[in-house]
Amino acid sequence: MVGTTLREIRHEIERLASDDGDYYVVCARSGERPVPVAGQRFATRTAAADAARATEQYRAALRRYDPQLPYYDPIVRQEQPLHVGDGPDDPDGGTDPVPQQPVDHGGEADDPLISFCHDVSGAVFEALSGSEHDEAETAIMETYLAAAEATTDRNTLCLVLLEAMAAELEAHLTVDERTRLLRDAAANLPSVAAAADPVEASLTYLDSLSLVRAYDVVREPRPEIDAWSVSLRGYAIDCDGRRFPTLPIGIDILRRTSEATAALGVTDVTALGEGDWELVVTSDVEAAGGLVCLTEDEP
């Protein structure tokens, strides 16, 4: 299965990584640090070059799930370049492309929203591949490929993929299964610092990507739980009027929480029309769920 390869490649990159290495991998064209090597550092140029090749393998495998996945041309960079002769592992210093001549796949660097959407979908596919939810994985692919035949705009297509994921995960997995899967997927995304207020931090980030046009959030004091009343304007993912795909919001909030097992859920969703929504994010364990998809009439 492709997914097994994804997990094995990620583990190989983690094996190569070092906490205090001077080398890292970026895209030669955009300067981005692509998944799954984002945030990783390497002690030697050789290890970084191996990780760059593994990154190409990972993204080639993932592209079988998501044909629109952006191309990157990984190169090795050194934070503090060594001078010639300073070490046997770096005889030339500077920056080496991997492969030696990066291939130009055309186009400018991806819009940050597109990159985020593909990173989220890739993280979910990798998490699915390590689970026993083959039926959900197949259903997502069938729904997405059918939509792809009718969608020519690349920006729209990456949003369609997230909507398809949310709908099929809701249909095929229980609440507990969805929560576990989303936690695994959040761990596959590039790491970010834990936020004192993960909901505010996440919405600020998603607003900067234009996943939402505007938002308001109020943290409400409630006995023994945290709760946030959220108002979203111009949510970019198309909805059917009552079903709200919370997947990209849920996964981004989870990766910003200080505790990996913290209870989080979305409740009290209200559709206002034209991509506008109101909802409540809560840490109430009895309300856990709703981080993938929610319908307006759910409690």
Overview of the structural elements:
Residues 5-79 form the DUF7552 domain. Residues 113-295 form the DUF7551 domain. Pfam families: DUF7551, DUF7552. InterPro entries: DUF7551 (IPR055973), DUF7552 (IPR055974). Residues 80-111 are annotated as: Disordered. With 299 residues, the chain is α+β, with helices and mostly antiparallel strands. The chain folds into 2 domains: 2-109, no CATH class; 113-295, no CATH class. The protein contains 8 helices and 9 strands. The protein has helices at 2-16, 45-62, 112-129, 134-149, 154-172, 175-188, 198-208, 247-255, and strands spanning 23-27, 74-78, 96-97, 214-222, 225-233, 243-244, 265-273, 276-282, 294-295. The strands form 3 sheets. Strands 4-5-8-7 form a 4-stranded antiparallel beta sheet, with helices on one face. Strands 1-2-3 form a 3-stranded antiparallel beta sheet, with helices on one face. The chain has a two-stranded antiparallel ribbon with strand order 6-9. A hairpin with a 2-residue loop joins strand 7 and strand 8. It is globular and about 55 Å long. The protein starts with a helix and ends with a strand. The relative contact order is 0.11. The model is unreliable at 86-109 (pLDDT under 50).
